[in-house]
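Task 17 of the worksheet. Students: predict the tertiary structure of the chain below and write it out as C-alpha cells. Keep your answer in the requested format; marks are given for formatting as well as content.
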Amino acid sequence: MAGGDADQGQGQVEAGAELLGVVVLAQLGGVTLIGDAAREAEMFARSAAEAADAAELHELMLGPSAPHGLIALFEGAGEGC
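Model answer:
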C-alpha cells in the first residue's frame, strides 16, 4: 500500500469472534457452489461450537482466575474415569 498504511495499522480491522457477523451467500438459480461456499451452513455451526470452546479455554488460561482455573481443570481430568 502506498504511504505505508499497512505498516502502521491504518485501515485494518481486528475481527474477534464477537465482531464477526454471519454472512450467507445469496442463492442464485443455475449456479453451483463448490468448496467451502457449498457447505457454509455446516461450517458456521461447527465454527460457532469451536469458538465457544476456544473462549472457555482463553478464560481459563488468561482470565482473572488464571492459572488456578486451568490447574483445577487438569487436576480434575482423571475424575470419573
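Marker's comment: The longest helix spans residues 40-62. Helices lie at 5-8, 40-62, 68-75.
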